[in-house]
Design brief:
The complex is a heterodimer. Chain A contains five helices and ten strands, in the order ααββαββαββαββββ. Chain A is α+β, with helices and mostly antiparallel strands. Chain A is elongated. In chain A, 39% of the residues are buried. By secondary structure, chain B is mainly alpha-helical. Chain B has one domain: Transmembrane di-heme cytochromes, Chain C (Fumarate Reductase Cytochrome B subunit, Up-down Bundle), CATH 1.20.950. Helices cover 66% and strands 9% of the residues of chain B. Chain B contains nine helices and four strands. In chain B, helix 1 runs antiparallel to helix 3. The chains are: A alpha+beta, B mainly alpha. At the A-B interface, helix 1 and helix 2 of A face strand 1, helix 1, helix 3, helix 7 and helix 8 of B.
Chain lengths: 259, 223
């Protein structure tokens, strides 16, 4: 044998351990690169935001279909869903005074101020679904209301062409500069999810009108998204090609938050 | 005389050493996510022996209050974890090395012998190839667990679009439970694995890095 095996393994070993060390350095460097621009606990670094967008594109092209319905349950299996947030619910809403502004696609002003009876005039759908919180818990809950797709066809015809739907609570004044100076609550939705047949503008929960804490008089129930997108007490709906700001996306969560 | 003996192929070593930091980051970011809702416990009936996790654990590790960050990390490293694992499985099948890895008819009996031997009982090690019977079972098991983590993870990630997969896992809540306990399984595996690596010594560890070890061969007519 030409080479001494003792020398040979030393040579191979030295080379391999240098490679392992270089790999470890690359992991540390990559981790620092990934986390650059981290603005604190309130948001995530831009590189990770990019990954969330990439994942959404993959899922949308490979998996998403409005024919994919979420599982429904018998009404008897509902649990006791908790009130998990009160942003946008500071003042009690009186259903008689409440109005819903609708800004159709291509318009800058609301075309209508609807009453709760206008919404109740649309075909009513009941569905018992597993409401999933981004925190990880879920509660089977029954909702009744109008389909957002049929609402759109009725009150903002043609707005299905918009890329997005933005919704906000009556007290929202648009997103503030930072998480601490927000007023109210607001969400952005991609149009395919908004037009999903199980996306409801709900006025009843578990057989009774919505309580104040659950968003009386009208809330969104969109079971193809996490709970953070299921905005309570909607005051304004806008159809737009500009991606609407989103309360929790601003706090580091995936803008799409799809399930 | 001593000769170089190839213990681990290049592809195996790459997949192993890529998996180590990536799985660590998956477990870390998984912990950040689990903090958001941490209902699991060890106990029987109404008696809880141990809640996963107690407050001191979150305080000690700094795993807490970073759900959004944890999710974003998890959904990045999941790609690398999955692609690396799939690459390893494909390599192992195509190269035929699965024959040395997957347990055979004798493995379960022999594994008991290995465990007894490792516990210090006066039991000889059974003859082995690249992996002994206990290694065949645990290394195949850990690869299988990786696949299950991937599937249960997808079942939690997209329960609407992959509703059939979520149903297969027993529903959304069961999928999360399975995903969690698989992770606890990795931590258990890791402890035993590190213990065994330390026990096996330096040349064994070196062979996982450089691929080779020195073996004594009898006779002098070797080349």
């Amino acid at each position: 044998m030409a080479t001494d095996p003792e020398l040979e393994i030393k040579r191979r070993s030295r080379r391999a351990f240098i490679a392992l060390g270089a790999g470890a350095a690359a992991v540390v460097g990559g981790w620092k690169w990934l986390n650059r621009g981290m603005g604190g606990a309130a948001d995530i670094p831009p590189a990770l935001r990019g990954v969330l967008g990439f994942n959404e594109t993959v899922v949308r092209n490979a998996l998403y279909s409005n024919d994919h319905l979420v599982r429904t349950y018998p009404a008897s299996s509902v649990g006791n869903i908790k009130v998990n947030g009160d942003d946008g619910l500071d003042v009690e809403a009186d259903p008689a005074d409440w109005r819903l502004e609708v800004v159709p696609y291509g318009k800058s002003q609301s075309s209508a101020k609807l009453t709760i009876d206008d919404i109740r005039g649309l075909p009513r759908y009941e569905q018992t679904i597993d409401f999933k919180c981004v925190e990880g818990w879920s509660t089977v809950t029954q909702f009744a209301g109008a389909r957002l797709s049929e609402f759109t066809a009725q009150f903002a015809p043609g707005s299905e062409k918009a890329a997005y739907v933005g919704m906000q609570t009556p007290d929202a004044v648009g997103p503030g500069a930072g998480p601490d100076d927000d007023e109210g609550y607001y969400v952005g939705l991609d149009m395919p999810s908004a037009l999903h047949p199980q996306s409801l503008l709900a006025y009843e929960m578990n057989g009774a009108p919505l309580t104040q804490g659950h968003g009386a008089p009208l809330r969104l129930v969109i079971p193809v998204k996490y709970g953070i997108k299921n905005i309570k007490r909607i005051g304004r709906i806008e159809y737009t090609d500009t991606r609407p700001a989103d309360f929790w996306a601003k706090r580091g969560y995936d803008w799409y938050a799809g399930l | 005389m001593k000769v170089l003996d190839e213990k681990h192929r290049l592809a195996t070593r790459w997949c192993h050493w890529i998996n180590f930091p990536i799985l660590s980051l998956m477990i870390y970011s998984g912990g950040l996510i689990y903090w958001g809702y941490d209902p699991y416990r060890v106990g029987l009936g109404g008696t809880t022996l141990f809640h996963l996790f107690p407050d001191w654990f979150y305080n000690l590790t700094g795993i807490g209050h970073q759900l959004a960050y944890g999710m974003a990390l998890h959904f990045l490293f999941a790609w690398i974890f999955a692609l690396n694992g799939i690459a390893y499985v494909i390599y192992t099948i195509v190269s035929g090395e699965w024959r040395e890895l997957v347990p055979n008819g004798k493995s379960f009996g022999e594994a008991l012998q290995v465990v007894k031997h490792d516990m210090g009982l006066n039991v000889p090690l059974p003859p082995q190839g690249r992996y002994n019977a206990a290694q065949r079972i645990s290394y195949s098991g850990i690869v299988l667990m990786g696949g299950l983590s991937l599937l249960t993870g997808l079942a939690i990630y997209k329960p609407a679009q992959l509703h059939w997969l979520t149903a297969l896992a027993g529903g959304y809540e069961w999928a999360r439970w399975e995903h969690f306990w698989l992770t606890m399984g990795y931590l258990g595996f890791f402890l035993v694995h590190i213990g065994q690596v330390i026990k096996a010594g330096w040349s064994n560890f070196r062979s996982m890095v450089c691929g080779y070890d020195l073996t004594n061969v009898e006779g002098t007519h070797g080349d």
